[in-house]
């Protein structure tokens, strides 16, 4: 998903920081139309993925309804109920209990946190949207995610 709250100074990906819910929904719809065309091809039709990866930008930027709409449509086209891993990138500042619960419910098995650094000064110098001291992620992550978290530092 090419959406972020803020562009980090070190980021070279094509990301958008100024899109509203309607624009994001339009993007999801277009992506699902393309995915449907691929899923219907003979070499993919009826196959189930072994791995699913949601990368960035920041997929966790999406709202819970947007995540549900996206993944429900994807599962209709290519179910991942037997996938070995469903990985999901998240920017810690976009997480709360409700979103983490939804991420788990859509079938994510590994959460990959874009921590980047544990020094708030360095995070701010790099243009990160969330400083460690202002993130709610450490208080909402324990429990179900304890053994299935990776970080980028």
Estimate what percentage of residues fall within beta strands.
5-15%
Q: Please give the order of strands in the largest beta sheet.
A: 1-2-3-4
Unreliably modeled segments: none
Q: Quick one: biggest sheet?
A: 4 strands, parallel
Tally of individual helices = 5
The amount of helix comes to 25-40%
Shape: globular
Describe this structure in words.
This protein has 153 residues and is of the alpha/beta class. It is 34% helix and 11% strand. The chain contains 5 helices and 4 strands. It has a 4-stranded parallel sheet with strand order 1-2-3-4, with no helix packed on it. Strand 1, helix 2 (64-77) and strand 2 form a beta-alpha-beta unit. Helix 1 runs parallel beside helix 2 (64-77). The radius of gyration is 16 Å and the shape is globular. The two termini are 20 Å apart. The relative contact order is 0.17.
Task: Describe how the helices and strands are arranged.
Layout: H1 21-39, E1 51-54, H2 64-77, E2 85-90, H3 97-105, E3 110-113, H4 120-125, H5 137-140, E4 149-151
Parallel strand pairs: 1-2, 2-3, 3-4
Helix pairs in contact: 1-2
List keywords for this structure.
single chain; 153 residues; alpha/beta; four-stranded parallel sheet; 5 helices; 4 strands; globular
């Amino acid at each position: 998903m090419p959406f972020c709250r803020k562009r980090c100074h070190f980021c070279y990906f094509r990301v958008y920081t100024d899109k509203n819910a309607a624009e994001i929904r339009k993007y999801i719809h277009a992506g699902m139309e393309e995915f449907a065309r691929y899923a219907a091809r003979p070499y993919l039709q009826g196959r189930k993925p072994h791995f699913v990866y949601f990368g960035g930008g920041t997929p966790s930027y999406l709202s819970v309804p947007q995540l549900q709409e996206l993944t429900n449509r994807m599962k209709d086209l290519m179910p991942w109920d037997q996938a070995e891993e469903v990985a999901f990138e998240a920017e810690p500042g976009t997480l709360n209990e409700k979103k983490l619960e939804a991420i788990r419910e859509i079938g994510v098995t590994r959460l990959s946190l874009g921590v980047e650094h544990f020094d708030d000064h360095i995070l701010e110098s790099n243009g990160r949207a969330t400083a460690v001291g202002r993130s709610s992620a450490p208080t909402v992550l324990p429990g179900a995610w304890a053994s299935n978290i990776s970080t980028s530092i």
